[in-house]
Design a protein that fits this description.
single chain; alpha/beta; 6-stranded mixed beta sheet; 7 helices; 15 strands; 25% strand; binds fe (ii) ion
C-alpha cells in the first residue's frame, strides 16, 4: 500500500482544510477541497489562500491531475476553477451533485438554462469508482448524510472524509442542510470506520474545540475509540437523537447562500447579467 505524501493548508476564513496529495517520488497530484476567499460584505472574491496552494504546487514541480471536492460546501466558495486555470487538472465531485443542483436550482430560481446533470464538472464519481493520481490508486465511497452528494476519497492508506467526521473531539458535521439526513450520516460513517484501523483520515474542517491547536489528521482506530459522537458502541438511534438535537442549535453558516450558488456550478460565479456583473441571490423567508 502506497503511503501518499500529503500537504494540508488551513483556511482561516472558513476553518476549512485543503489537501495536496501525491505518491512519494511522483509529481502527479490531486488537490482536495480548496477554498476561495470571499468577503460577503464587500461581495468580493480573492485568491490569497488558493495562491498558497498554487505556490506549493509550482515550488515542488507538481503537476495537477485532479481537483477534487468531497461535496458542495456550504461555508466557503470553491477555488476549483481558479486552480484549474492556474494549474490544469480535472474537477471531480460525487455524482449526486445532480440532486443538490435540482434542489437549489428551484430554491434560487436560477436561469432556466442551468443544467442539473452535473455537466459543469469534469468527472462525477459514484460509489466504488476507481481512478489514478499518478501511480496512486484511489477509490470512492459515497458517504451522504451531511449532504446527499458527499463522497470520501480513499487514496493509498489515506481517506479524505470531507464533512462526515471531524476530529474525535469535534464529533461529526451537521446533517440538517436540505437533503441532509442524520441516519444516513451514521451509515456513511460506519462505511468509513470499516476501513483498516490504521487508515489515516484527513478531515475538511476543524474549529479547535476547547482551544486546542487546529488539527486535521486522525485514524480509523482513533475515531472508533474516541469520537465524541460516534465512538464504538453508539447506536444509530442514539446518534440520530444527538445529531438532531445539536443541529437545532446551530446557526445558518454565514456564507451558505453564496457558497451553494457558486459551488453547484463547480465554483463558477452565476452568469453575468446584461450589465456584465454576477449577482448572488438571497431567497427571503425560504430557509
Ligand atoms: Fe460541508
Amino acid at each position: 500500500m502506497i503511503k501518499p505524501e500529503i500537504r494540508s493548508f488551513f483556511h482561516e476564513g472558513s476553518n476549512t482544510i485543503g489537501h495536496v496529495v501525491h505518491a512519494p517520488g511522483d509529481k502527479r497530484c490531486a488537490i482536495i477541497d480548496a477554498a476561495l476567499d470571499y468577503d460577503q460584505a464587500a461581495g468580493r472574491t480573492r485568491t490569497d489562500f488558493a495562491d498558497q496552494i498554487v505556490a506549493h504546487v509550482r515550488e515542488h514541480g507538481l503537476s495537477v491531475e485532479w481537483i477534487l471536492e468531497t461535496h458542495a460546501h456550504a461555508d466557503h466558495l470553491s477555488a476549483a476553477p481558479y486552480l484549474k486555470q492556474q494549474l490544469g487538472g480535472r474537477i471531480g465531485i460525487g455524482e449526486h451533485i445532480t440532486d443538490v443542483q435540482k434542489l437549489f436550482k428551484t430554491l434560487f430560481n436560477v436561469e432556466k438554462t442551468f443544467n442539473t446533470d452535473g455537466s459543469q464538472f469534469d468527472r462525477l464519481f459514484k460509489e466504488g469508482d476507481r481512478f489514478k493520481i499518478g501511480k496512486l490508486e484511489a477509490h470512492v465511497l459515497h458517504t451522504p448524510g451531511h449532504t446527499p452528494a458527499c463522497v470520501t476519497y480513499v487514496i493509498g492508506d489515506a481517506a479524505f472524509v470531507g464533512d462526515t467526521l471531524f476530529m474525535p473531539d469535534g464529533g461529526t458535521a451537521r446533517a440538517d442542510f436540505p437533503g441532509g439526513d442524520a441516519a444516513m450520516l451514521y451509515r456513511s460513517i460506519e462505511k468509513i470506520l470499516a476501513l483498516p484501523p490504521e487508515t489515516r483520515l484527513f478531515i475538511c474542517h476543524d474549529y479547535g474545540p476547547g482551544g486546542r491547536a487546529i488539527a486535521w489528521e486522525t485514524t480509523v482506530a482513533e475515531q472508533r475509540a474516541k469520537n465524541i459522537h460516534v465512538h464504538q458502541g453508539v447506536s444509530e438511534p442514539e446518534f440520530v437523537r444527538l445529531r438532531t438535537e445539536r443541529d437545532k442549535q446551530l446557526a445558518v453558516p454565514a456564507l451558505l447562500m453564496p457558497s451553494i450558488q457558486v459551488n453547484m456550478r463547480a465554483g463558477e460565479l452565476p452568469p453575468p447579467e446584461d450589465n456584465g456583473v454576477s449577482y448572488i441571490k438571497i431567497p427571503i423567508n425560504k430557509l
